[in-house]
Fold each of these.
Amino acid sequence: MADVGREVVASALGGPEVLRVREVEPRAPGPGEVQIRVHAAGVNPWDWKSYAPGAGARPPVRLGLEVAGVVQAVGPGVRWYSPGDEVVAWPVTGGYADVVTAPHQVLVRRPERLDVVQAAGLLAAGVAAAHAVEATGVGDDDVVLVHGAAGGVGRAAVQLAVLRGARVVATASGGWHDCLRRFGAEPVTYGPGLLDRVREVEGRVGRVSVAIDAAGSPEALDTSVTLVADRSRIATLVALDRAADLGVLALGHGAGADPGTDVRDAARSQLAALAADGSLDVLVSGTYPLEEAAAAHVRSREGHAGGKLVLLTR
Ligand SMILES: NC(=O)c1ccc[n+]([C@@H]2O[C@H](COP(=O)([O-])OP(=O)(O)OC[C@H]3O[C@@H](n4cnc5c(N)ncnc54)[C@H](OP(=O)(O)O)[C@@H]3O)[C@@H](O)[C@H]2O)c1
């Protein structure tokens, strides 16, 4: 019999208090699948949104979209990976676990430059950012306004836009400004008066031509539609319901949004390559033992975690 492992599930719809650790027998990999011994699992806002009241999920809800770990077993037909390979994977189902089984296509090798904890935070936020940068057509003559630039998605979007040669104006609280300057962005504090502060920065960097919203506040889209004339170059990853009314791009799942499946799948290996050569960094602001997933969710829900939160299995 296979070893029994732990996994975290939402036992009911609600807040972090519904999370439970249960024992499961890991599923053997089927054809084309890989079984991963999880060392670290990235925490993403989707994880706690997925079991919120009204989410429509049927408990128990398995959690965890992205992991970093070591290949433990491969199923028939898998030639690219062998036991012992260090990998990252997104999207997986039930990544908050000691062991997860997933199709080989969702894996990439862990970039050596990232340790296993950082690597667990590379893909979910990274592919969303890559989708936003691609969908809005960011190029080297653009000035890109990134809302929520202190978060996992926003920070990745800032770095990817800078890599494309764009100038970037990034909204974040003051504690993140030095970090964003190091990435090559012009930081601006969000909150009342944002439009005026961005206009002041426009005097130095040029007119904003693209906006990417990873914050979801009314202010983010209001500012974006005021500044950017071409609404097909404004994308939100959060305020999906409002996007249609405003005629801006809604990216992700739900409310008629563009899931960007092909772009995101292609981004997986591109992000790993950028992380491998040091062009893309992942910042981690907190780690928690797997059993303390609820504490990680409390912090993520507060909305100011900044760096990635990561669960550790050992
Ligand atoms: N549609 C999709 O496909 C998709 C994919 C991934 C994520 N998302 C969504 O994108 C959002 C961000 O995800 P994430 O992983 O980046 O979250 P995160 O890492 O938890 O980051 C959240 C950041 O948002 C910043 N923030 C909070 N209120 C803000 C405001 N009013 N204006 C500007 N920034 C603000 C905070 O920065 P400070 O520390 O500076 O306050 C915080 O660090 C979430 O709602 C998530 O569900 C959507």
Amino acid sequence: MIRFENLTYIYYRGLPNQCVALDNICLEIKAGEFIGLIGPTGSGKSTLIRHMNGLLKPTVGRVLIELKEVVMKSTRFEVGMVFQYPEDQIFEQTVFKELVFGPRNMNLSESEIKKRIFEILDFVELPSEVLESSPFDLSGGQKRRLAIASVLIMKPKVLVLDEPTVGLDPVGKKSILQKIKQYHEKEKVTVVLASHDIEEIAENVNRIIVLDKARVKMDGSVAEVFSRADELIKIGLDVPKITKVFGKLKQMGYNTKLVYTLAQAQAEFARLLGQRE
Ligand SMILES: Nc1ncnc2c1ncn2[C@@H]1O[C@H](COP(=O)(O)OP(=O)(O)OP(=O)(O)O)[C@@H](O)[C@H]1O
Ligand SMILES: [Mg+2]
């Protein structure tokens, strides 16, 4: 579905301050996967993501989506991008205008657009009263919901999120991620989520790609990647707190498996307690 073929990207190429942000990246992402993209600051996550909708052009190599090479704007309706700061994305005077911008560019009928607006407001849990408000008068959490809604309203096949919950409180974070997960399950879209929040990654994704210094350092299931805790810590990353708790239990002699979500922890605790009786 998405293929990165020997992708190298250099900022300020040929200048004294040139920076190799991606170094020969080869990756394949299948349709319907939910990918977590992690890596220390400056490892290349945002640079990689920006190649998926043609915001950046490879210095070497290419990016294919459904076998078509991504070039400037060629995937603007297929790949929906949600950026770290909603302020970078929102530019219209009213919520209504913000929501209709994409669909009108897609030449959807006004009746279809109207239908989608009410569906999407309902989905992201924004009241229809906000339609005539300025997006900039919304709360932080509501702005994020709007930024996500303005992308989902186009029904993209691929949803890319770059740190979508930075700055939100834990409740706000959880509710946004739940929406994204729900959307993934309902529409079977491909999701790529870049985040520093390891718990957020652990609870939601099916596969983790770890970038370090412009290269792919690890690529595997959540269990595979979190079983390499020492290597993650070495490059400045971490495993979920609950994974550490169970690591300690194992050291103490308990026969427990690797756990990385709260649901797994609950089940594993129940099993361990059951064994004692
Ligand atoms: N616009 C730019 N101009 C020049 N260099 C850049 C630019 N954006 C990023 N870089 C450099 O490219 C490298 C990769 O940066 P990138 O933003 O992709 O990393 P990241 O993994 O997204 O980091 P973070 O976790 O901080 O968001 C870094 O060395 C960074 O300094
Ligand atoms: Mg980034």
